[in-house]
Please model this.
Amino acid sequence: MEQRPAGFNAPENSAPSRPLPGHIAAALAGAGGATDSAGRPWAGRSLAGEDATIHNFEDDDGAADAGYVVALAGLGAGTGDEAAVVASLATARVFVPILATLAEEGEGAGGLHSDKQADMALVTLKAPDGRTAMPVFTSAASLKAWHPEARPVAVYAARAALSAVAEGAELLVLDPGSTVTFVVRRPAVWALAQQRDWTPSYADPELARHLGESVVGFPAVRRVEIHPGGGVAAVAADGRQLPGGGSGPELRVVLYLEDGLDAAGVQSIVSGLNSAWARNEIFAERVDSIEVKLRRAAQ
Model:
């Protein structure tokens, strides 16, 4: 039986809820073509000489990437943040678990059924909010502890992120069941897949500006602020709370409203802003999950 972190269950795959950025869509469209991701043709390659190298990690000892370990320690100590943890993954090797699945069943002697053909498949999980998540592991030991029968496939985290997008997964779950389980949310997954920097939505000045502009048509909204959401923090196995790596909600939008509004007026403002945000490309790409808090402007 699979070992899973609390709140994650095995799901059926589902498509991403938002359109993919062009760079990711192009990378996926080119998968399986005549060349690799660097444009080098597959034709004519052999397993002799320099081509005998199977992958980039043949001398890998299976330990967690040192940069990731340092960044995660900094997050726990309060000297770093989750952006630094995600940035450390840009060059990190991780392990993706692959499991055998029955593709064809045969009938043996005495009518007994046996496995005739098996396929290897990526593993996906279901997040507490119902979204699809892909587990990845920073070390071979953590993967083996999670599922002894899973085959570890070493890849760069950017490649794992691209695979997650291809599988319809919006989250990467690092080291589920380990001392610290760190969740990389959808905007950061897309950033990793595109090999570009990522800024958390709650620390994004451009996003804050767009949110400020979105309330111009709502005079009853006197001010808008952004803060880390209630789901940003991750809880380690020993009970420690880390200020990052949670599964969401990641962004808290605080609306300061004028006094005297009735319930219908407040609902109209919130609905109108939700519609405006949904049409905003910056908001749709950079915000994974949101919670809205209402305050009186006098506070």
In short: The longest strand covers residues 93-107. The chain is about 30% helix and 25% strand. Residues 201-296 form a domain with the Alpha-Beta Plaits fold (CATH 3.30.70).
